Amino acid sequence: MGRHLMGRARVAVVGVGQTQHQATRGDVSMAGLVREAAGRALDDAGMTWADIDAVVIGKAPDFFEGVMMPELYLADALGAVGKPLFRVHTAGSVGGSTALVATQLVQAGLHERVLTVAFEKQSESEAMWALSLPIPFQPPMHAGAGGYFAPHIRSYVRRAKAPDHIGILVALKDRRNALRNPYAHLHEPDITFESVQESLMLWDPIRYAETCPSSDGACAMVLGSEAVGDAAAAAGGAPAWVHGTAMRSEPTMSADRDPVLPLGQRECALDVYRQAGVTDPRRQIDCMEIYVPFSWFEPMWLENLGFAAPGEGWRLVEDGVTAMDGDLPVNMSGGVLSSNPIGASGMLRFAEAALQVRGRAGDHQVEGAGLALGHAYGGGSQFFAMWLVGAEKP
Amino acid sequence: MRDVAIIAFAQSEHRRRVDDRNEVEMLMPVVGEVLASAGMTMDDVGFTCSGSTDYLAGVAFSFVMTLDGVGPWPPIQESHVEMDGAWALYEAWVKLQLGDVDTALVYCYAKSSPGDLPMVMTRQLDPYSVAPLWPDAVSLAALQTRAAIDAGRVTVEAMAEVAARSRRDAMGNPKAQLAWDRPAADLLAEPETVAPLRRHDCPPISDGVAAVVLAAADAARGRASRPAWIRGIDHRVEPMALGLRDLTDSPSTRLAAERAGLHDGPVEVAEVHAPFTSQELILRAALGLDGDTVVNPSGGALAANPMMTAGLVRIGEVARRISDGEHRRGVAHATSGPCLQQNLVCVLEGDT
Fold this sequence. Notes:
The complex is a heterodimer of chains A (about 400) and B (about 350).
Chain A: E1 11-18, H1 30-45, E2 54-58, H2 71-74, E3 85-88, H3 94-107, E4 113-121, H4 127-130, H5 144-160, H6 166-178, H7 193-197, E5 201-203, E6 206-207, E7 216-225, H8 226-234, E8 240-249, H9 263-276, H10 281-284, E9 287-289, H11 297-304, H12 313-318, H13 342-358, E10 371-378, E11 383-390
Parallel strand pairs in A: 2-3, 2-4, 9-10
Antiparallel strand pairs in A: 1-7, 1-8, 4-7, 5-6, 8-11, 10-11
Chain B: E1 4-11, H1 23-37, E2 47-51, H2 54-57, H3 62-70, E3 78-81, H4 85-97, E4 103-111, H5 117-121, H6 137-150, H7 156-170, H8 184-187, E5 192-194, E6 197-198, E7 207-216, H9 217-223, E8 228-237, H10 251-259, E9 269-271, H11 277-287, E10 294-295, H12 310-323, E11 329-336, E12 342-349
Parallel strand pairs in B: 2-3, 2-4, 9-10, 9-11
Antiparallel strand pairs in B: 1-7, 1-8, 4-7, 5-6, 8-12, 11-12
């Protein structure tokens, strides 16, 4: 289905691990948190710390934990001593970008086995205020990320003539999907359409129950060369193969920008599809984990990523196409709406996509998933990272 | 590996305190200068990567402000590391290996002046067992220096020679912040500030920015008369805890130098990122530099030490000397973390 790009060696995901995500992981230090995820990824890959050639770690702003460049303190815990240790920070997309920087090390032939880790321990601080940029840097126009994004959503609702209940449907779906995912932060078995609808309106039209939680958590993956992937396959490890990768950035404020349908995200998706030989994403991609921190981003991003025409994304939600039993399941794990350790949230999307094509997604497995999209975005809808992973070699 | 070269380098004048410009305003002239020097505009840049830290900017997502200044429109391929710009250059070098882009812009910056830098840097330490003690960077370097003196690897006389040579060489560097000409013997008459360090053993606190343009193969040859080719680049890390490593040596530097092929040829010039005089002596030993190598002709970090930037400046200083024809082969080194915890080595060569 895909093709091997010049200059890029093949990359396989041979190990995936994540922590239990919850509001406060008071039982572990930051080192304990990253080791919980990384240790599980190594176990999954059948490897030990000694097998790893390099470590690439990412997280969102250091103020979230109050530690400047914490990877330096974590070097020992990550088994990185004597190895290259690399730290990425690209805002909310960072979990995805970190996985892609790690992927490049294998694609370039520099390393055989790379451990990539992303984390956030948000309980160490108050993320909403950390995300409210203080004067004199920015005019004090909003509180928290929801305040920033609500106008984009209102613009989407107006342009798409979307009915008011679409956001509720997305929240209900993702929180119900989370009941199938033992690692998810929010498990709300009693959630109903009415309970979402009646929850507090925080930033019109975003209700409390349509908003991502603030979580402690980490995610890790072991990425390997083609030889490592082949060995994993021979041992029954079911590697996921990387078919396409891309990152794009655009300005925070520009008269040319459309934050509802960002050009950078569109170009990023098209780049990934081109690499993977995907010409009809709606038909060729089996399922996806996309970064939806507020419910309405699901229909918005479905349009921008090429799964629906502009103004039509909400219909996929309303028709149940994106549900677990629909023909294009979205955020089977429960998504960012159910677990949000910010720095790790992007990598969780990438990792869940890999789990799907490996057939290792447990109770939230999509039967026969052959090609899955992992997606992250960050900043003011301006930083984008994506990969397509498949069960077959590209 | 694909041939990748540094084809342009620019840096600000490094100053103790730049009050009249923010980070964006400091950066933009330097980005403009480096692109003009490469004969490029942002439209010609295939990949952009920057290095900075929110802890010095005092605001989360501070790199977004500078990226907005650089102007990522139409959308660009871009990344950011919470590391010195030398590591941003490493990511860009890896990206160029993949073959889908041919040029990269790398930049980095920091203003240390708005805060109390030694206190800010304590926030980098183990948050559970060390940071609560607030040990400042100068005190940690003093501990390292004491260990090196006790081990017989460093003397205060040799440290004073490093200080005198660096500040004297800095007199020829218009970007340098701290430059003077005094004999080493005079320096030793001064009192210790944090024993065994004297004032001259310590770096200045600097505000500054730097930028580099990388280009691959033909794109480099087409844009520069004498590209500075990256022949090897590698970085390694040690544990942070001072009790878990030998502070009198830099094994991560030695390993990175081996991996980068440092000793596959003569080393004519070295720019070593050593904020403290004793660290230069430790690094020279780890890099295996002998008397034939010109070390830190720019004055090094002892002449200007902009955080997140001084490492990339080392690479740029070596590249510039190779592009000027002054040298044919050299090495640049960057460090991060307390007491040389993390180290990067970049070997550069000009065409013969």
